[in-house]
Each structure stands twice: as structure tokens, then as C-alpha cells.
Specification:
heterotrimer; A mainly alpha (324); B mainly alpha (381); C alpha/beta (534); B: 381 residues; mainly alpha; two-stranded antiparallel sheet; C: 534 residues; alpha/beta; six-stranded mixed sheet; globular
Chain lengths: 324, 381, 534
């Protein structure tokens, strides 16, 4: 028993594929988690991040499929690029619905989020029956020399190009939140909306914009999930499979800091990779138990870290002027 | 001077406006659904007709619709109790799964009416435990229950799936079991909930019982000391704590009760004939989600849940007839979600209009200085 | 200096604002002049806040004109007001605790965020006005006085020609208030700004202003140069009748009144017979807090605190806000539990971990923020009156609507909660009436101990008089009263003894006979006990 465990650990530590898969999952999570982080700093616990990812994933897949089948002359890279753009738009559309219902009409944000999750899930399933989102396997983009580093070379420098979009997105979010006036206002409405309001800041507008940022980033994340992964061909219902919610768990794990959030993504990505890679490495493990592993880990880790950190004080509290 | 009495006129007008808003938004949701069907090449009239046939018009169909409505209603009642206590339990889908799994364990290993009771209790307990886990994480580790209940849905569906891979757990040991590989043994006829047969329709006895339960929950929430304390807890936990209502204990109990109702719903489905009295992967089949939506649309009023559950159930049974139209049955999920949004918007718009009106016209807060000073004239020196 | 100066910086003429049938401002004229501090005095609800809201564009008047430096103007929103050079200092409402000083100062601006320049600007503004502060400190770590400075810097940095100060000293120690006004006077005289000082504190207005306008029921009832005003005349004008001067004046925050002796002998409450018969020392201790320690996030918010209150005694707890008063209130509300030490009520030790433990032992609480743990705004008045014992109007677990209503009506009559039906929502009541509901509920079941935290904050004179009378009556009936307040005069007026709280510790205790504003002020300012008592 223990020997086989050591075996597993050794196999996992020595497998290139494991590192590659971990980073792949981590990056997809990181798009959504970065977006969610901004929305939460503005005071919204935005569970429709799941819907945003699903919307992005399906839209990206279907756009790609349509372009490739209708105009075969267009290079796949361009089709991928267009697919990613439409994915962000899809994420934004979901965000606009969430933002306006929860921060203009003041409908409970969880109610809106839950309904949107179910709506978009059903919508993608329904539309997929008519316009199927099938894609070709993404090509790896190898960075010369670096991608030859043993173990992690392929993981960090040999991913398909859409994966590298995370490199500008995360620092951009950080700059936006900590170095712009907009970010200052976002942080203030997440911490003390009454004070922000008195200071002349439109609280709900900033919160809506925070959600929109989440929509853009998570939509893109959904697109990357479908178009930027070597292991996925097209959209299927299970692909997103609560990864949006795992992204929220990453934000909580990270104590509402961006660095911690990204570390959380890598951690959770590792367990998704484990679930996927163990059978490949020849270890027999029950499929259902393996599938639930990342979720169990996310829950356990959130439980350990949730109490330690300080969340934005007004997180998940609606703001209506004059109503205490 | 500060009385809140308002002339009947504006109230009436407000009611009419609200009704109008409902009409418009429901119409929009239906039109959007029809357009969606049309652009995918489906005939929306046929879809509507199929939905009606499948839910009511077809022979013996409305009995099935009633049977489907009962678990939705049960889940909704539990959700209402959790919400009353100020908790956001959105993991009923998982709680249904766990409750049913536990009920199956009891029901397939025993038989007779006592086993039925035991199975229902097992469902209740299973759901309560699963939601209790979220309560534990919430009060002990401050994990938001929104997140934990959701993650627990996934874990529950995979975990109960695992139970169906082992014969010493739930898997049917019978080597000649029908088609499906992963399914539990069938519940013995003596352990099933009896069926009511009427006008060529049949539905389990759980239907009238659940309706009575809805009335009971309504009365309990609005008329009893228990309901009173629960709403204090939900509206102002600190006041609750001060007046002797333990936030942790009562909150955890309310969350667990929500799960218990979901688990009970699953157990009742099993014993009432869902999936031919067998537990299978995906047994919960969105009952948890839909029951939760019922509570949301009914805006947490138990009696309103009854018709809403019926509408949602007819979408479920109606979907069974969609295959003939060639339209993917997932359209039903879209229609349902659109309807939910359509029903959420009008009251929100009305509330905003009310608030605007309050800003424009008298807030009863302002004249207080005058009244209290005047009142003081007669106060003891 | 005076009202005769040529063109006023602000000229509000015939301003009228109705809210439905209620007149908030009725034909109000007001002129602010450069270089002058104009005090606007009035009870809560007198219309002074509405008037200021009109000036900063939060509220649009129904009638009347606004002329700024000779030019007629319409002020649509706060942004317009800011562009026109009107700035307002709020009562530390506009600060975000987790942000730094410089970030807070910049909140609400529009220019690009330039960290280095912003910090420099903040430092410059602070230095210019003698308001020393470190721009990189987190506001959450600052004392109330320092936060007030941040508010002031935030406002002054935008160089407003017209400055509105809304109750600026409510969270300051006397020394801090003194310093604030000294700075202000200097700045205003030097830079020729026009200032409106909105306050309900007579002493403050007398001390700091040049001209005083008194408002009552939406009208200007008096206007005079400060030099010609006295506390007595102002109080009368404000309330509109002869008030029991010492009570009201004290409640109104007349810092200097007790020393001037101008107001004559204090009114003596007729003591309850049985209580008067036994001297305080021999009465039983009803509330004993012994070595109470509460640690939160590594900080000792209550630090070996010991307080004893005997039956019929009123013990005041003084202290600058944020020194453990809130936690003391929370402790007595069963909202936090002790890490060590004990609380004993009438001889029995309380298990502070249990929900409602204090209430069960007979502790009534008027919480500091009644919306926080005192009532449920979304329930009815009747429900709020019986929120802690719905069982008393229930039969077999079912709440009887009729009995609930009857009991509520009794309480409403007894506590003079007028003008609303028992089934009206709590939210619809005024602050004063909400306070009465809380009082009525807490006193209705004969508590042994009454903890009143800032019981008069935000109330108008009438409600203040009523509340203080009720507290006195409670003590006379043998209830041990613990009065937590930041208003020194309220404490001096009401208490038999005063305990001074600093950083969760009791750093001094004064008997009524020894207590003066100066001594209390010194204690509050952190001067060691012995010195203050010497």
C-alpha cells in the first residue's frame, strides 16, 4: 500500500505530462480567477463566473468550427483568434445580464448567478445540437531552448499560443486594481460602499464594471479551454464542470490577493492534472473518486484558509443608498 | 401624523403596473424561447403543443406531472427554510443525491412498510448530513455556504456514482439486472409508496402529503414562535444572538433542514417510482436545481410554491414528448431559466419604483422632530 | 467682520423644500461670507442637514435661489458643487479603513492616479494646515482624531472656497476638538474661506463661530453674532420653549456650561424612597465585571477590565471612541465571549459563550447602534417590541396576532410611541421613536441591569430628555445602570461614578463629587490617573 503510494508520487514527479497538464488547468482557472478576483474586490461574489466560462467555451468552439468549415482557406490561427474574441464577447454578455440584474435592479446576486449558470448551460447544450462546436487539436507553440528544459519545459514553454494570453492578463488586472483610479474606486466600493458613495463614486457602476471585467477574463478563459488545449476537441458540457466555482475557491484560498489567487489556481490545476494523468501513468483508480478529487481538495483547502484572511468587507452585500 | 396608511389609488395603480410588468416580461421570455427554437429550425408551435401533450393533454400525463411536482415542492420548502435563516443553500442537487443514496441502501436491503419509513428517514438524514457539512464549514471555517454547497453537488454526484460501482454498497448484485450496468437493486413492492389512481392517471401518495406539508411549513413560518425566531435570525443575526437565538446552532439547523427536505424528496422519488424504483447515476436529474428555482420564483412563500412547482413539473414531463418534434429537449432548461429571470425582474423593478417614489414624497422619518417634541409636552418633567 | 460684508460667498434666498406634506426647509435665507465661520444650530430634524444637502447638490430645492459670489447658480449634484468650490467634511463617513491616507484623500477625484505626486500633495496640504499625518498609514490604524484630520485634508486639498463642516467633533476628545477649531480659525482667517459649521452642540458653536443661525422646524428662528449670544438664549431659541436647562444643555453638548455656573443649580430628581434609604455602598452589586479580557485578532480589546455597578447606581463609562466601549457593549449583549475573567449578575456567574446569556440573567441593553443589534428594521413595531420573548404572546407555540398587538399597544402607550400603528414596519419610524421601541422592550421585563450605550446619540432634544428621564427612573427603581457615552456632559450629569476606558482598560475612576470636565478631559487625553486626580 505504502509502496504503491511512493510509486505514484515518484511517477507523478517524474512525468512531463503531469506538469504540462497542471499548468494547462492552472492557466484556464487563472483567467476566470483573475476576473473573479476583480469582481470580488468590488464587492460581488460572482457565481455566474461559471456561466461566463461556459458561454466563452461554447462560443469559441462554434466560431472556430464555423470559420473552418465555411472558409477553409483561413488559417487555423486566425480562426482561433476570432474564436477567442467572440468568447470574450460572450463572457461580457453574461456579465452584462448579471451586472444589470444584481447591481441595477438589486436582485440577489446569488439568485441571478445561479439562474444564469443554468441558463447558459442549457443554452450551450441546446445550440450545440444545431451548431456543433467541434475544433481541431490545438498546436503547441514551443519556445526554442526553454521548452527543452526537462520536466517543466513543455509545461511552461510548450503550450498552444492562446495559453500565453494569461501572461499579459494577470499583470494587467493587478495594474488596473492597484495603480489606476478605477482600481482605487473598485477597492473602495468593495470595502466601504457608503464611504465611496459619499465621496462621489457611483458604487453600483463600479461593481458592474468589476463584473464586466470578470466576464471578459472568464469568457476568454472559456475560449482558451476549448481552443488552447491539446487534449480537448470542441465544447462538451462537462468541460467547464464547475471550474468557475473552483476559480472562486482559488480567490478565497488566495485571501483576496492576486498572488495567492494564482497560487491557488496552480494548486487546484495540479489536482485536476492528477485526476487526468494517473490513469495515463497506469495507476488504477476509480474514475468517480478521481473526478471528485479536485473538488474535495478545493473544499478542504478553502476550509483551511478561509478563516485566515480578510475578505473585502462589503463582499456579497448589495448597496442601496439610504438603506443600512 | 406618521401613519403609514396610504390612499387606495396608488396601491391599486402599483398593483396594475406590477401585473403589467409580469405580463410583459413573461411574454418576452416566451417570445425569446420561440425565437430560439425558430432560428435552430424547429417549429415552435409544435414544441408548445408537445409540451402541453406531455404534461397534461396526453392520456395519463397529468398524473405524472403531479408526481414530478411533489419532489420539486419538497426541495423548495427546504430551500425556503434555509433562506429564512439568511443562508444561501444552492446545493440541493447534491443533497438529493446523497439522501437518495442512503435511502436506497436502506430500502434495497429491507422490505415492508417499516423499511419504507426507514428509507424516508434515511433520505432525510442523508440530505441533512450533506448540507450539515456545508454548515460545519460555514460556522467553523467561515467558508461561504454558496461555494461549499455548490462544490458538494459535484462531489455528491461523483461519490454516489462510486457507490453504484460496488455491490457491497449500492450496486445491484443480480447478474441478470436489466440494461444498465450501474444501477441499484429494485425497491421491493412492499417498500414502495402507494399510488393514487384517478381518471386514468396515477401518482404517488406523497403528492397530497407534500401539499399538506407546504401548508404546514407556511403556517410554521408565519404563525409560530419558531418561524418568528427564524426570521429574526435571517434578518438580523446579531439581534438574534442577543435575544438568545444561537446563530450557529439555529443557522446550522436551518441549513441542514434544507438539505433534509432535498434528501427526503430523493427518497420519496425512489419509493414513488422514479427510474423504475432503482437508484441510477444521475437519478437526481436536476430535481435539486429546479426545486431551488421554484422557491426563488415563489419568492420564498410556501403556498405560492405549489403552482410554481406544477408549472416546472409540466416542463419536465412535457419535455418527454419533445423527441417527436426533433427539437433538443435541453430547450426546456433554457425556457425554464428564462422564465425564472422573467419572474424575478418585475418585483425588482416595482421595488425600485417604490423607493424612487419614497425619495420624492414624504419619508415618515423626517417629521419626527416635530411629533416627538409635541408629544413631550405631556411627558413627565 | 460680520454680516454686513459686501458680496456674500454664498447667498441662499427663500430656500424651500417639501417632502410631501412635510416642510424640511421653509423660506430659509442664509449668507456665508469669506473669512467667517457661520454656525448653524438646531435639533435633529430642524432642517439644517437638508439645507446643507441643497448646498452640496444632494437635494434639489422646491423653491428659492442659490447665488455664489454674486452669480445665480443651480447645483445639480455633488460633482457640480465640488466644481463650484464647495466642499463638505463628513462625520468620518467617507473614509475607507483598508485604504491608506493618501488613497482616501484622492477618493472621488478624477485625475489620473499618480502615487508619488498624490502622496506629496497630501503631505504638503497636511503641513500647510498644521495637520501632521503620514500619507502611507492605513486609515483603519488611525485614531478618531487623526481620521478627522484625513477628512479635513481630503476636503481642503481641493481648495474649496466654501467649506461645510457637519458635526465635526462628534468623535473627538475635548482637546482634539479644541485643536481642530484653533487650526480652522487660523486657516479661514488667512485664506478667506467661507465656512458653515453645522452642529447641535451649543458650546462648540459659541466657541468657534462668528455668526449663528438657529433653525427650528425648517425655519430660521434666530440669527445673531456669536458675541451677542449666550448658551441660555441659544438653547431656548433652538428648542422653542423653556427647557430644563441643565439636562438639555448638557445633552446638547455644552462643554463649558458646567463651569460657567450660568445656568444655576442643577435640577434634582426626586429619588425613589427605598433607594434613597440605603446608601449606595451597602446595596448589593448587581453587575460585576471582573478582569474581563477579550482578544480579537491578537489585540486585547478588553484588557483586565473590572467594573462594578450596584443596584440603583448609574455608572458612566467614558472614553474616546474605539477604546473598548463597543466590545463592552457587545459583551453585555452576548455577542462576544470572554477569553478570561468573569461577569456576575446579581450573584450568579454568566457563561458568556451562550447566545442570549446576558438577557437570560436580566441584562437589558440599549445598543450603541440600534440597527446593529437592537431591532430588526424589516419587522413590525409590534414584533420588535416582543422580539426577545415571542413566547409570551403565544399559545402552544403559535404566536397570537391579537395578543401580540394588544401587548404592543400597551407598551406603545406606556412609552409614548405615537403616530404609528403596531403593524407598521420598524423602518418607518424616526430614530427617536425607534429608540423608544428599544427602551420599551428592554425595560418592559424588569431587568436587573441596564446597559445604555450612547443612548442619546443622534436624537433630538425631546427624545434626549425622554431617554435620560427613563434611565434615571430605571436607576431609581433599583436597576443597576451602566451608561457608556462619549458625551462628557451626559456622563457628568447622569452618573454616580465615572470609569474611564482606554485601550480596553479602566484607567481611572471618578466619583460624581470629584468629576469635572477638566479631570475627565485629562484622563481621556491619556494623562495618567494620579496626575488627573491630583
Amino acid at each position: 500500500m505504502i509502496a504503491s503510494l511512493i510509486d505514484v508520487v515518484g511517477d507523478v514527479a517524474g512525468a512531463d505530462a503531469m506538469y504540462e497538464a497542471a499548468i494547462r488547468f492552472a492557466i484556464v482557472l487563472a483567467f476566470a480567477a483573475t476576473g473573479e478576483w476583480v469582481a470580488e474586490r468590488a464587492g460581488t461574489l460572482n457565481i455566474s463566473v461559471e456561466a461566463m466560462m461556459i458561454g466563452g467555451a461554447y462560443t469559441a468552439g462554434v466560431t472556430f468550427a464555423q470559420i473552418v468549415s465555411n472558409s477553409p482557406s483561413i488559417s487555423p490561427s486566425i480562426a482561433v483568434a476570432v474564436g477567442l474574441v467572440t468568447a470574450t464577447v460572450a463572457g461580457l454578455v453574461v456579465a452584462l445580464v448579471q451586472a444589470n440584474l444584481s447591481h441595477r435592479l438589486s436582485i440577489d446576486q446569488f439568485v441571478v448567478g445561479l439562474t444564469l449558470n443554468l441558463l447558459v448551460l442549457g443554452l450551450a447544450l441546446f445550440l450545440d445540437s444545431r451548431w456543433e462546436a467541434v475544433t481541431s487539436v490545438a498546436e503547441k507553440t514551443r519556445v526554442p531552448l526553454l521548452s527543452d528544459i526537462p520536466l517543466v519545459g513543455d509545461a511552461l514553454f510548450g503550450q498552444p499560443w492562446p495559453m500565453y494570453l494569461i501572461v499579459p492578463v494577470v499583470p494587467f488586472a493587478w495594474w488596473l486594481v492597484f495603480h489606476t483610479r478605477w482600481g482605487l474606486e473598485v477597492r473602495s466600493v468593495g470595502e466601504n460602499p457608503q464611504a465611496a458613495d459619499v465621496s462621489g463614486i457611483s458604487v453600483n457602476r463600479r461593481r458592474r464594471q468589476g463584473i464586466m471585467f470578470a466576464g471578459l477574463a472568464s469568457g476568454l478563459g472559456g475560449g482558451v479551454l476549448v481552443l488552447g488545449q491539446i487534449s480537448i476537441r470542441g465544447y462538451a458540457t462537462g468541460h467547464v464542470g464547475l471550474k468557475g466555482i473552483i476559480a472562486i475557491a482559488a480567490v478565497i484560498f488566495g485571501g483576496w490577493t492576486l498572488r495567492g489567487t494564482i497560487i491557488g489556481c496552480v494548486l487546484f490545476g495540479y489536482f485536476f492534472a492528477l485526476q487526468q494523468t494517473l490513469p495515463v501513468l497506469g495507476h488504477r483508480i476509480n474514475a468517480q473518486l478521481a473526478a471528485s478529487l479536485p473538488y474535495v481538495v478545493a473544499l478542504a483547502i478553502t476550509a483551511v484558509f478561509a478563516t485566515r484572511s480578510r475578505q473585502p468587507r462589503a463582499l456579497a452585500q448589495p448597496f442601496v443608498r439610504g438603506l443600512t | 401624523m406618521i401613519t403609514m396608511r396610504r390612499p387606495a389609488g396608488p396601491t391599486m395603480r402599483r398593483g396594475v403596473v406590477l401585473l403589467g410588468l409580469y405580463a410583459v416580461s413573461i411574454a418576452l421570455a416566451l417570445v425569446a424561447s420561440a425565437v430560439l427554437i425558430a432560428i435552430t429550425g424547429g417549429p415552435w408551435q409544435k414544441v408548445l403543443s408537445a409540451l402541453l401533450d406531455g404534461s397534461f393533454r396526453g392520456s395519463g400525463r397529468w398524473g405524472g406531472t403531479l408526481g414530478d411536482a411533489a419532489p420539486l415542492l419538497l426541495v423548495a420548502l427546504g430551500a425556503i427554510v434555509s433562506t429564512r435563516a439568511g443562508l444561501v443553500n444552492i446545493g440541493q442537487e447534491g443533497q438529493v443525491a446523497v439522501g437518495t443514496a442512503l435511502a436506497t441502501f436502506v430500502a434495497t436491503r429491507n422490505s415492508g412498510p417499516a423499511a419504507l419509513i426507514a428509507a424516508l428517514i434515511a433520505g432525510f438524514v442523508g440530505g441533512a448530513l450533506w448540507a450539515g457539512l456545508a454548515a460545519l464549514l460555514r460556522y467553523w471555517r467561515k467558508v461561504p455556504e454558496v461555494i461549499s454547497t455548490l462544490l458538494l453537488v459535484f462531489i455528491a454526484s461523483q461519490g454516489t456514482g462510486y457507490l453504484l460501482t460496488r455491490t457491497f454498497l449500492l450496486l445491484d448484485p443480480d447478474p441478470n439486472k436489466p440494461n444498465r450496468v450501474q444501477t441499484s437493486a429494485q425497491v421491493d413492492p412492499s417498500t414502495r409508496i402507494g399510488q393514487i389512481r384517478i381518471f386514468g392517471n396515477e401518482f404517488p401518495w406523497s403528492v397530497p402529503v407534500v401539499v399538506l406539508l407546504a401548508v404546514a411549513v407556511g403556517v410554521a413560518l408565519h404563525r409560530t414562535v419558531w418561524g418568528f425566531r427564524l426570521s429574526v435570525l435571517g434578518r438580523n443575526p446579531r439581534t438574534a444572538q442577543r435575544t438568545g437565538i444561537s446563530v450557529v446552532r439555529s443557522g446550522a439547523a436551518a441549513l441542514a433542514f434544507g438539505g433534509a427536505m432535498a434528501g427526503l424528496a430523493g427518497a420519496a422519488m425512489l419509493a414513488g417510482g422514479a427510474a423504475n424504483y432503482r437508484y441510477t447515476p444521475g437519478f437526481a436529474n436536476n430535481v435539486g436545481w429546479e426545486g431551488l428555482l421554484v422557491a426563488l420564483v415563489a419568492r420564498n412563500r410556501p403556498l405560492v410554491c405549489i403552482p410554481v412547482a406544477l408549472v416546472f413539473a409540466s416542463l419536465r414531463t412535457g419535455a418527454g414528448f419533445l423527441a417527436a418534434t426533433g427539437v433538443e429537449r435541453s430547450i426546456v432548461e433554457v425556457v425554464r431559466a428564462l422564465l425564472v429571470l422573467a419572474l424575478l425582474v418585475p418585483p425588482a423593478v416595482a421595488a425600485i419604483r417604490r423607493r424612487r417614489a419614497a425619495v420624492e414624497s414624504p419619508t415618515p422619518v423626517l417629521p419626527s422632530a416635530a411629533t416627538t417634541s409635541a408629544a413631550l409636552g405631556g411627558a413627565p418633567a | 467682520m460680520g454680516a454686513q460684508a459686501p458680496t456674500p460667498a454664498v447667498d441662499l434666498a427663500s430656500i424651500t423644500k417639501h417632502y410631501g406634506r412635510v416642510v424640511a426647509c421653509d423660506d430659509v435665507d442664509l449668507q456665508l461670507h469669506a473669512g467667517q465661520i457661520h454656525g448653524i444650530l438646531g435639533e435633529n430634524g430642524a432642517g439644517k442637514t437638508t439645507l446643507m444637502k441643497i448646498l452640496i447638490g444632494l437635494v434639489q430645492p422646491d423653491d428659492g435661489t442659490i447665488t455664489l459670489a454674486g452669480r445665480a447658480t443651480v447645483i445639480h449634484d455633488p460633482q457640480t458643487a465640488a466644481d463650484l468650490g464647495i466642499g463638505m467634511v463628513h462625520q468620518h463617513l467617507s473614509l475607507v479603513e483598508s485604504l491608506t491616507v493618501w488613497e482616501n484623500v484622492l477618493l472621488g477625484d478624477h485625475a489620473r492616479l499618480d502615487r508619488r505626486r498624490a502622496r506629496q500633495q497630501v503631505a504638503d496640504t497636511a503641513e500647510h494646515y498644521g495637520l501632521g499625518i503620514d500619507p502611507d498609514r492605513r486609515v483603519g490604524d488611525l485614531s478618531a482624531g487623526m481620521r478627522q484630520r484625513v477628512e479635513l485634508i481630503k476636503c481642503l486639498r481641493r481648495d474649496p472656497a466654501i467649506l461645510i463642516l457637519d458635526e465635526p467633533t462628534s468623535v473627538l476628545t475635548p482637546a482634539e476638538s479644541e485643536q481642530l477649531f484653533t487650526t480652522l480659525r487660523e486657516v479661514i482667517a488667512r485664506e478667506r474661506r467661507a465656512v458653515a459649521l453645522v452642529s447641535h452642540k451649543l458650546a462648540e458653536v459659541l466657541h468657534a463661530t462668528d455668526v449663528i443661525t438657529i433653525m427650528r422646524h425648517g425655519r430660521v428662528v434666530d440669527r445673531r453674532r456669536t458675541a451677542d449670544a449666550s448658551a441660555a438664549t441659544l438653547a431656548r431659541a433652538m428648542v422653542g420653549r423653556e427647557v430644563s436647562l441643565r439636562t438639555s444643555a448638557a445633552a446638547l453638548g455644552a462643554i463649558t456650561l458646567t463651569e460657567t455656573g450660568e445656568l444655576g443649580a442643577p435640577e434634582v430628581e426626586p429619588p425613589a424612597v427605598d433607594m434613597a434609604a440605603t446608601p449606595v455602598d451597602t446595596r448589593p452589586a448587581m453587575l460585576t465585571v471582573q478582569d474581563a479580557c477579550v482578544v480579537r485578532d491578537g489585540v486585547a480589546v478588553l484588557d483586565h477590565l473590572s467594573i462594578e455597578v450596584r443596584a440603583g447606581e448609574i455608572v458612566g463609562v467614558a472614553g474616546v471612541e474605539g477604546n473598548g466601549q463597543r466590545e463592552l457593549g457587545d459583551l453585555m449583549s452576548s455577542l462576544i465571549h470572554l477569553d478570561s475573567g468573569s461577569v456576575t449578575i446579581d450573584g450568579s456567574v454568566v457563561d458568556t459563550r451562550r447566545a442570549g446569556c446576558m438577557a437570560r440573567h436580566g441584562v437589558a441593553v440599549i445598543p450603541e447602534d440600534r440597527h446593529d443589534s437592537g431591532c430588526v428594521l424589516d419587522m413590525t413595531i409590534a414584533e420588535n417590541l416582543l422580539i426577545d420573548r415571542p413566547g409570551s404572546v403565544a399559545r402552544f407555540g403559535f404566536v397570537s396576532k391579537a395578543r401580540l398587538r394588544r401587548r404592543a399597544e400597551e407598551l406603545m402607550a406606556e412609552f409614548e410611541i405615537q403616530g404609528a400603528a403596531p403593524d407598521a414596519p420598524m423602518r418607518s419610524l424616526s430614530g427617536g421613536n425607534q429608540q423608544r421601541v428599544v427602551l420599551a422592550r428592554e425595560l418592559s421585563h424588569r431587568p436587573k441591569v441596564l446597559v445604555a450605550a450612547q443612548p442619546t446619540r443622534g436624537l433630538d432634544v425631546g427624545a434626549i430628555e425622554y431617554t435620560t428621564a427613563r434611565l434615571r427612573a430605571a436607576a431609581a427603581a433599583g436597576i443597576a445602570v451602566l451608561l457608556v457615552s462619549t458625551e462628557l456632559d451626559e456622563l457628568l450629569e447622569m452618573s454616580d461614578r465615572i470609569v474611564v476606558l482606554s485601550r480596553g482598560r479602566a484607567i481611572g475612576q471618578l466619583d460624581r463629587a470629584d468629576a469635572t470636565s477638566e479631570r475627565l478631559g485629562l484622563l481621556l487625553g491619556g494623562v495618567a490617573t494620579q496626575e488627573a486626580l491630583a
